[in-house]
Amino acid sequence: MPAITVDDVLVLPRLPRLDPVMTEFRDVKRLTTAPQGYEGEGFPVRRAFAGVPTTELDPFIHLDQMGSVDYGPGEPKGTPWHPHRGFETVTYMIDGIMDHQDSLGGGGSISNSDTQWMTAGSGILHLEAPPEHLVMSGGLFHGLQLWVNLPRAAKMIDPKYQDIRGKAAALLTTADGGALIRVIAGTVAGHSGPGSTFTPINLAHVTMQPGARLDLPWQTDYNALVYALSGDGWVGTGMRPITLGQLATHGPGEAIRVEARTELDLFIMGGQPIREPIAHYGPFVMNTRDELKQAFEDYQKGRLGVIPATRVPHTD
Asked: Closest Cα to residue 113, out of 22, 58, 55, 180?
């Protein structure tokens, strides 16, 4: 199923018109192109943050665009059971279906702009896999997984799981109705998304019609990242060209500007930088190498959880 939409965007709340003279629009600091690779059991991904300094990403750690791929019967793939500690995983599905299960009993299925938000905290095991019926039939698969860092004080909190339905997202449009903004977490122009976060962040999925302009108010103490999921257009005050698989990191300012040449799908992120040391290896994101070693030791000794005996069945 496609990402959540509406029949008439003109019935939605609208972003305020920003005065171009009085508003400090952000310029693009860096534009990078995501390399392609494979994750888990072999599903294709674009590594959106590759080549970008962590200081420009903070508080985010990692972003994969999963697909878009149209699987044949028997081809859909997921990930095996694996551990995490010290951060949060946010899995957002645009097309297709993904099942989640973790060692604390969290789980379910997401599609159509649903989000699975897992706070790994002190440690958890989980898997993500297509349901059996999708493996049998094949079909379109497209989504995102974002890793959000936790500050030192929250790295060892108890794990938790949020099942966020797509219909819970705050839906907005631009003054001329040329874009649909889905606020997943944080607050955009006074409209808040359903995701509960430890680190103050905004996450929004935006679809723009050809020729549309997006002037998006943005907190001045947040960084700003714009990733193109499909289509092409221009971003920043200098109108830098942006296309599928490219990430634009921004400098300071009060608002983000994007213009669409074709229909343009974007994932827009930002948050308050944590500005703490990062020790990241594999599935763990800590502050020191000693903490990383402890995480691996705890995993090997079974302290991050036990794989359940049975898989949680798919539910609609």
From this structure: 180
